């Protein structure tokens, strides 16, 4: 029964996403005087939904690896590390949010624990 409820919830989410994408596509096609098909909207919806699933799975994994149950801005920034443009936009937005909250910007954290063998400070020769 739990699986059935989860499947129903997933279908509701996909339907809402399909509707939102359809509305956006309709606005753009009217503005640009072009046509699209319902199959295009369906395929785009599946693509976007798949990307959302992958992104959420990655964010959950990053948080779990850090020993947390809550996803933070650090997890989102880690996810954007391979997309320079996205990372730049997210950093700007993060700085705006921090400035509006009146908090000082986050300082880069140093790694905890001991360095791996052979990677620490070299021993002084005697």
TrEMBL record:
Amino acid composition bias (Basic residues), ranges on this chain: 111-126
Molecular function GO labels: chromatin binding; DNA binding; protein heterodimerization activity
Region (Disordered): 97-126
GO cellular component labels: FANCM-MHF complex
This protein's UniProt keywords: DNA damage, DNA repair, DNA-binding
Keyword DNA damage: yes
Pfam annotation, one family: CENP-S
Any Gene Ontology biological process: resolution of meiotic recombination intermediates
Keyword Chaperone recorded: no
UniProt similarity note: Belongs to the TAF9 family. CENP-S/MHF1 subfamily.
Matching PANTHER family: CENTROMERE PROTEIN S, CORTISTATIN
Designated name of the protein: Kinetochore component CENP-S-domain-containing protein
Organism of provenance: Clohesyomyces aquaticus
